[in-house]
Structure formats: structure tokens, C-alpha cells
Specification:
This protein is α/β, with parallel strands linked by helices and 409 residues long. It has 2 domains: 132 residues, Aspartate Aminotransferase, domain 1 (Alpha-Beta Complex); 220 residues, Aspartate Aminotransferase, domain 2 (3-Layer(aba) Sandwich), CATH 3.40.640.10. It is 40% helix and 15% strand. The strands form 5 sheets. It has a 7-stranded mixed β-sheet with strand order 2-10-9-6-5-3-4, with helices on both faces. A 3-stranded antiparallel β-sheet has the order 13-14-16. Strand 7 and strand 8 form a beta hairpin.
């Protein structure tokens, strides 16, 4: 509920006015489809007493995803991270694997957890995905694979990176956690590399409560992934080193319900994105991350870049102003993974080799979207940003005073 009008800088909450929102507007609030249908599925699961172990609903979800994406195999898993770990093992990655630092920490952890060294490579300044030329420069005799991330659902330079992988005989996985339902040159994401991994975590626009999927067109990799998610079992005997990565039936049921609403979720996301684009237009130093209108997107992330030199405020200033108004934004991603442990200790000078990553992590800010916000609320959020930038000197001075007072107490 929007509770106030903002026409002057004194109307901002940091100056003592009431917050614009009585309940926080947040990034990643779950979308939920038809509850009655979900409850009917859950009742059926309970009646049938088949709660997990590749049941009816898991098989149906896998088939619907497979058909939707036009891939040969879709393997449902308990979460995207486990899916990534399984795919890494199934594709035979060892030694060093090239990854971006501008990603969620799970991308690197999935390698380190298995004794593989993540070799951080810089991103492209326009796409925020791995820079193809940078990948080539980082390939050594120890390199065995590449993991690229479709950041914010915007695809990597798949053609060029795939060619690099072929030339150097490297395994290639795409972390597609953000990209379910998106396309590259008109072809659905999921059809590229040796395998692609989706996350269906609650914060994703399409969720299964918690879950994910490995998709591939490689029969051998698919067989390995299917068995590795179930302790490596082939029947009663273990064939591969595996883990327990199965999706349960209730999660699959949630996925089936949300698949029925997925077009509506995307429609709402795109409407929100277009509203933000209109409302943020012309604000000095605020740039909305854009999507290629020729491709298919889920629009689940609305991200702005804050240029302090032009806006007079930095990204964290904008975040603090919005937080005071009841708007929980997210610095997605911050800091770079190379500045988190154990990588910070392992590679203390890595920041010197990732200048674009360093620049982008200091400027990005994700804004609330999805079914939990409407046009009026987006207009209010944008108005807060506009007023703050227009009066950046007053806002900056107030934030400095608040910080000084907080530090002295």
C-alpha cells in the first residue's frame, strides 16, 4: 500500500517522513499459481503415499520441461546447486575450470566442493557475462572446462564460447539459473553446451519451492546425471559416484502448477519492466539494464546501474534511501565471488585481473518486481529515486550525517 506522496526532498523517509510502504517491497518474492490445484496434487500425493524417488509428478514435470525447451533430456533435481555439482561430475570436469566472479557464489562453490579450482575470468562490459576473449587468455594446460552464467537471463556469447570450448577440447556448462524460458537467436536456453542447469528456487520467477533441473541433448551425460542424482545407482547397484539430488513430489507438483501460470508471470514481469523503463527515463546517472527485444525473456530481474559521477549518489546511497522507504533492493551480485572466502585468501590479488567485474559489482542494484508489485508502486519507487538524484547534495549530506552519528554511538 502506497501511503504518501513524494514531491520534495523533505518527503523522503531519511529526513523523518513516514516510509512510502508500510510493508517491505522486496526482490525475489515467490510467485504462486493456482493454490486449489496445488492442494489437490498434494492430497493425491498423500493418498498415493509416493512422496519421492522419481514419482508421477516428477516425471510429468520433467516431460513438460523437456517439451517446452525442445531438449532431449530434462532431469529434475533438489536444487540448482546440486544440479550444477552433478553436471560438473557428469561432464568430467577436473583441474581448473574457468568461471565468472560476477555470479552467485554457488557457481564457484560447486567446483570447489569437488576439489576443482575455479579460474576467475572477467566479464564483458556490455553483457556482464564471461568475455570470450578473456576466456581464451585464461586457458592453460590445467584447464578442463568452462562454466558460463546467463546473468539476469541475458545469454552469454554462446556461439563464440562454444567454438572456444571445441577448439580446446573443454567441457562446457551453462549456469542458466536466471534464464528459464529465455532464448538465444530464437532457440530456447537449455540447448547449448554439454548441459545447462536451471534453478527453481523460491526467489526465481518460476519455482518449485526449492528445486532445479539439468537439461542436455547428450544421451551419455543424461544417463550419468539421472543415476548420480540417485546415489549413482543403476538398479540396486552403484555405477557412478553419486549423491541424493532427487526432487520430491510436492516440489514437482508446485512446478506443474506454476508452469500453468508461467505465461502470466512473464507478462507481469515484462509489464513491470516497461513501467520501470518509462518511470526511470531521464534520471541522471541511472541506467536500466536492457533486454534484446528480438529474444524471449522472463524479465525476472529489473536491474539499474548507478553512476555516482552523474547521479551524485552511489549505488549504496540509493539503496539506503529506498530501504528507509520500505523498499528492499539487492546488490545482485556484490561483492564479486573473488572477494568471498575461500577465494579471497586463495587469490588475494585477483581483483587486479577483473576490472570490469570490480566496476559492475559497485554499480548494480536489483529492484522489486514480480506479482508482488504493481504499476503504482513501481511509479512510487521510481519517484523516490528521481527525487533523490535531483536533490543529491541534500541527500548525500544527510546520509553522511547519519553514518557519522551511527559510527559515534
Amino acid at each position: 500500500m502506497v501511503s504518501k506522496e513524494i514531491s520534495t526532498v523533505k518527503d523522503l523517509a531519511i529526513f523523518g517522513a513516514d516510509p512510502a510502504f508500510s510493508q517491505y517491497k522486496m526482490v525475489g518474492v515467490p510467485n504462486i499459481g493456482n493454490r486449489e490445484l496445488l492442494f489437490s496434487y498434494i492430497n493425491d500425493i498423500l493418498d498415493r503415499k509416493w512422496l519421492t524417488n522419481n514419482g508421477k509428478y516428477v516425471k510429468e514435470l520433467e516431460e513438460k520441461i523437456r517439451v517446452m525447451l525442445g531438449v532431449k533430456h530434462a532431469i529434475a533435481v533438489s536444487n540448482g546447486t546440486v544440479g550444477l555439482e552433478i553436471a560438473i561430475r557428469a561432464t568430467g570436469m577436473t583441474g581448473e575450470v574457468i568461471v565468472p566472479s560476477f555470479t552467485f557464489v554457488a557457481t564457484a562453490h560447486a567446483l570447489s566442493w569437488q576439489g576443482i579450482i575455479p579460474k576467475f575470468s572477467d566479464i564483458n562490459r556490455n553483457t556482464y557475462t564471461l568475455d570470450a576473449e578473456g576466456i581464451e587468455k585464461n586457458i592453460t594446460e590445467k584447464t578442463r572446462g568452462i562454466i558460463c552464467v546467463h546473468v539476469y537471463g541475458r545469454p552469454c556469447n554462446i556461439d563464440q564460447i562454444s567454438e572456444i570450448a571445441r577448439e580446446h577440447n573443454l567441457s562446457l556448462i551453462f549456469d542458466a539459473a536466471h534464464a528459464f524460458g529465455n532464448s538465444y537467436k530464437g532457440r530456447p536456453i537449455g540447448n547449448f553446451g554439454d548441459a545447462e542447469i536451471f534453478s527453481f528456487h523460491a526467489t526465481k520467477f518460476f519455482n518449485t519451492f526449492e528445486g532445479g533441473a539439468i537439461v542436455t541433448n547428450d544421451d551419455d551425460i543424461a544417463e550419468k546425471c539421472e543415476q548420480m542424482r540417485n546415489f549413482g545407482l543403476n538398479g540396486e547397484a552403484s555405477r557412478y559416484l553419486g549423491t541424493n539430488g532427487k526432487m520430491n513430489e510436492v516440489s514437482a507438483a508446485m512446478g506443474l502448477v506454476n508452469l500453468e501460470s508461467i505465461d502470466e508471470f512473464v507478462k507481469i514481469n515484462k509489464r513491470n519492466y516497461m513501467t520501470y523503463r518509462h518511470e526511470l527515463e531521464g534520471i541522471q546517472g541511472i541506467k536500466l539494464l536492457e533486454y534484446d527485444e528480438r529474444e524471449k525473456y522472463n524479465y525476472q530481474y529489473v536491474v539499474i546501474m548507478v553512476d555516482e559521477n552523474s547521479a551524485g549518489l552511489n549505488r549504496d546511497d540509493i539503496m539506503r534511501v529506498l530501504n528507509a522507504e520500505g523498499v528492499k533492493t539487492k546488490r545482485y551480485f556484490f561483492p564479486g565471488v573473488h572477494k568471498m572466502e575461500p577465494y579471497k585468501t586463495m587469490f588475494p590479488d585477483m581483483y587486479k585481473f577483473l576490472p570490469i567485474t570490480e566496476m559492475v559489482t559497485a554499480k548494480v542494484l536489483a529492484l522489486p518486481t514480480g506479482t508482488s508489485v504493481n504499476d503504482e508502486e513501481i511509479e512510487k519507487i521510481s519517484q523516490i529515486i528521481r527525487i533523490s538524484v535531483a536533490h543529491h547534495k541534500d541527500v548525500k549530506a544527510k546520509l553522511i550525517r547519519d553514518y557519522t552519528n551511527d559510527s559515534s554511538t
